[in-house]
Amino acid sequence: MDKIPFFIVTGFLGGGKTTFLKHFLHTFSGRYRIGVIQNEFAPGQVDGAELRREEEDFELLEINKGSVFCVCLLNDFTRSLKSFIEKYHPDILLLEASGLADPIAVAEVLQGPQLFPLLYLAYIWTIVDAENFGKTSAMTTRVERQVRVADKILINKIDKYKGPLDPIVEKIREWNPFAGIETVTYARTRLDDLEALQEHVPVAMKKKDEHRRFDPLNKPGTGTVALKTTQPISRKNLEAFIREMLPLSYRIKGTVKLDDGNFVSVQAVMGEVEYKDAGPLMQPTELIAIGPGITPRSFGKRFHTYRKN
Amino acid sequence: MSGKELIQKAMRLEKTERTPWVPFVGVHGGKLLGLDATTYLRSGEHIFNGVSKAIEEYDPDGIPVIFDLQVEAEVLGCELMWADDNPPSVASHPLSEGKSLDDLRVPTLDDGRIGMIMETTRRLREAHPDIALYGLITGPFTLALHLLGTDVFIKMMEDEAYVHRVMEFGKQVGMFMAGEYIRNGCDVIALVDPMTSQISPEQFRQFVTAPATEIFDFIRQRGALSSFFVCGYAQQNIEAMCECRPDNVSIDENIPLDYVREVALPRGVSFGGNMKLTVVLLMGSPEDCQVHALECLDQGGDRGFILAPGCDLPMDTPPENLKAVTQLVRDDYQREVVRTLMENQPDEEKLPDMSEYGQTDKVIVDIITLASESCAPCKYMVDAVKNVAPEFEGILEWREHSIKKMEAVNFMNALMVRSLPTICIDGKIAFTSKIPPRSELIQAIQNRINEKLKLKLSQKRPELLLFTTNEEDEKKLHEVTREAIIELGADVDIRHITDEKVIRAYGIHKTPAVMTVSYKLKTQGRIPSVDVVREWIKEVM
Fold first, then answer.
1. Is residue A22 part of a domain?
2. Whether pLDDT at A130 is above 90
3. CATH code of A234's domain
4. Alpha carbon of A173: minimum distance to chain B alpha carbons (Å)
5. Nearest residue of B to residue A69, measured between CA atoms
6. How is B131-168 classified by DSSP, letter by letter?
7. Radius of gyration (Cα) for chain B, nearest Å?
8. In Å, how far is B447's CA from the nearest CA of chain A?
9. Which of residues 215-254 of A touch B (CB under 8 A)?
10. Does residue B424 have a pLDDT over 50?
11. How far apart are CA B305 and CA B249, in angstroms?
12. Which residues lie closer than 8 Å to B135 by C-beta, 6 or more apart?
């Protein structure tokens, strides 16, 4: 059975997530059955009813309509999402995640035994508001984490922002050495050609004679697993672990805590791995792997076996 | 020593004989009573029964009265969205919807569920004097988020004075709630402020430190202990949290325990946590929970540490999982077993299929132990079998498998043994943990012998093959054999083989010859594993 690709768009309130959502719906709702999951609610925020009024065809699931502040509340998520899938049979799922939600926590929930057979985490967009980026020194830890976990970062509202873009791009690049970065207006990024989602793979890595199209509906048996731990691992063991996982996965990415206290960003795509030093960070190790041969249990187990080696 | 005393000791950073355990039973209490979260959280009677049931089931050292960070918000004008499996969530933010801070006042006992909760506290205090009762109050920053919504983050940059006023108000609400909880018998007041994980240390010190410190001072003056709970990625704020001088900080899985220990203990603050809620406590097995609890205990150490889940327990957390943690915390022996198993991880690829085990003629008794030389229950278990063995001379074979050796761990897993010590008879678990009385053990072994006999009787009968190449031999041999069979009254078949080619194929060079053939059914309906087939082959060699 083909699993449903699950997409996440995250970013701060007012940054452009809903505009992105509309754009996504506009592009795909004719071709695919789309399930939208909304997780944010605040006055002035466009809600489901309004979205529907614009005559886009989609099904909506509202999770924790209210402030989400706790990973504990994600328990409800599994049950609600499972019923939603059984009822509406969507082809695609898109979560518009609150700026306060934790994408890795979502990924962990998606790999639970009830959801893992039904879907896989396909792609994460993080939308950053160019205007407020500098001002959000307050929210730095939060923004940084959302950027780190993204596959693509959209720097939005560049029409309104009159300052220099380079410092923003630099900062984002520092946090996430591997993701695609795009400057956009109205959260508009190329979606109609899903191949464009592979842009983040550096040219050198693309196998020229194997032109792989990213088709969200053509990944039978794929699973996405997420690993989060506060326990450090040696660089050597990490590399051995990644080498073992390579043949089983399309992509592995994340930020890993090493035993010298520093972190390293890693991305492995189509058989090739890149590491970049990330300095000391105050967060756990976060790794996401997507591929046909990976299960949550085996991924975690192998990691910890290598860690204890 | 009572649970309450143990917790007091831990919070004073004194060494304790064992680590105290505080399961954060919130809506899970409703689950124990078969109620949904909303029904549970709205009734003092249900909460009293739920918490009492949790105390009965889990034998904790401390427990919260209620885990619901919306109690104050509800009273202050926030609309709540109730749910079946979780505490409610806040759906509206009065200060962002036209209400002014001046319109709000500190609650009283007559407001919302507050009176009911305090009454329940009092009842719980009377019913369970030896347990540390935790009263949970919503921290001022999280309350600010309830009242203002995410606007608070913008206001923190654009209107600091206003945020200070909101925090001041939150402080007053917190002090009121703390005071009431203490008055009604709580030993520990937990200031729960998860939203502080969203801000930097600078903002924490700017907005949270002053009100939080005042609340902790207030609690201290009233003679109670205090804890600062935070969940989420809050590592950056641990130092600042300790500076507020709570007696304890409690964290979830997103922050490493050893980091918190290194920051908190030197600052005179105890610490607690941080068991994984979803991956282990909700979705794991009891064994997983014990392994994880032991890992936390090791990291926490024996001074100033309280074992707890990372946050409010999911409603559906299996009770066996929590009981397993209790067992681990209280039972030295169990800790040793789990530790030994952790160090000798079974190799899943090498686990033999044990379902056909024990098909040999003898009855095999396996005793799986920690180590009988050093462990009393193990020794007694082994002795029980030793003492009974003479009754079954020649039929019984027994062996001890100590899990300090790897093969025993694989063996244990293959037989799906979960507790030690355990006696298995012919590959099936017969007695666990309790040493069986002699008569019971004899009976169990005898039952197995009878079973095997029945099996034997229902199988294809043994044969006598009579090899002859002429009629005379054939006739004579047949008579001899028949006479022997009749004399014995045996259940045996006779088969004549006269074809020379066939006779030679049996390796026979001179006729007349007799060969006995016995058939033992070893397995039916499935493909056996190599290890088991090896055993059978050994038997016939």
1. yes
2. no
3. 3.30.1220.10
4. 21
5. B195
6. SEEEEEEE-HHHHHHHHHTTHHHHHHHH-HHHHHHHHH
7. 34
8. 40
9. 228, 230-231
10. yes
11. 10
12. B64, B65, B121, B177, B178, B181, B182, B184, B186, B188, B189, B190
Please check the confidence at residue A198 and state whether its pLDDT lies above 50.
no
> Could you tell me which residues are beta bridge partners of residue B396?
B363
For residue B293, the surrounding DSSP H or E stretch is helix B286-300
- Check CB contact under 8 Å for A42 and B149: yes
Question: In degrees to the nearest 10, what's the CA dihedral of A80, A84, A85, A88?
Answer: 180
**Tokens, residue B281:** 């406590």
Are the beta carbons of A284 and B256 separated by less than 8 Å?
A: yes
Query: Total structural domains in chain A?
Result: 2
Give B-chain residues touching A142 at CB under 8 angstroms. 198
User: Which residue(s) pair with B136 in the sheet?
Assistant: B190
Strand order in the sheet with A285-291: A223-229, A285-291, A251-257, A263-269, A272-279
Residues constituting chain A: 309
Quickly state the pLDDT bin for B514 (edges 50, 70, 90). Answer: very high
Q: Which domain holds residue A294?
A: 223-308
B482: number of Cβ within 10 Å: 12
Q: CB contacts < 8 Å between A and B, how many?
A: 113
Q: Kindly state whether A302 is in contact with chain B, defined as any CB-CB distance less than 8 angstroms.
A: no
Amino acid sitting at position B397:
E
Q: Based on the fold, state whether residues A142 and A289 are members of the same structural domain.
A: no
How many CB atoms are closer than 10 A to CB B501?
6
The closest CB to that of B89, out of A13, A73, A142, belongs to A73
Q: Let me know whether A191 and A230 are in one domain.
A: no
Exposure string over B269-284, b if 16+ CB within 10 A, otherwise e: bbbbbbbbbbbbbbbb
CA A105, CA B63: separation in Å to the nearest integer? 26
Cβ separation B157–A135 shorter than 8 A: yes
Domain termination residue (choose one: A203, A231, A251): A203
Give pLDDT, residue B491.
Answer: 81
Cβ atoms within 10 A of the Cβ of B437, count? 10
Question: Using 50, 70 and 90 to split pLDDT, how confident is the model at A57?
Answer: confident
| pLDDT computed for residue B459 by the predictor | 74
For residue B423, the cross-strand partners are B367, B431
**A231 to chain B: which residues are within 8 Å by CB?**
256
User: Largest alpha-carbon pair distance within chain A?
Assistant: 57
Helix axes B257-264 and B286-300, enclosed angle (nearest 10): 30
Q: How many angstroms separate the Cα of B317 from the Cα of each of A80, B85, B218, B221?
A: 18, 11, 35, 37
pTM of the complete model: 0.77
The arithmetic mean of pLDDT across residues B142-160, rounded, is: 89
Domains and CATH numbers, chain B: 3-317 (3.20.20.210), 348-457 (3.40.30.10), 463-517 (no CATH)
Higher per-residue pLDDT: A14 or A54? A14
pLDDT at B515 over 70: yes
Note the pLDDT tens digit of each residue in A165-194.
Answer: 899 999 999 999 999 899 988 888 877 655
- Residue B80 in contact with residue B89, Cβ under 8 Å? yes
CA distance B363 to B427: 10
Residue among B77, B205, B211, B206 nearest B149 (CA): B77
User: Going edge to edge, which strands form the sheet with B132-138?
Assistant: B62-64, B132-138, B188-192, B225-229, B248-250, B270-275, B305-309
Radius of gyration of chain A (CA): 19
- Cβ contacts (< 8 Å) between B83 and chain A: which residues? 76
Task: Give pLDDT tens digits for B21-53.
Answer: 999 999 999 999 999 999 999 999 999 999 999
What residues in A contact B163, CB-CB < 8 Å? none
pLDDT of B381 higher than 90: no
Residues A190, A162 contacting (CB under 8 angstroms): no
Q: Which of residues 230-259 of B touch A (CB under 8 A)?
A: 231-233, 235-236, 252-257, 259
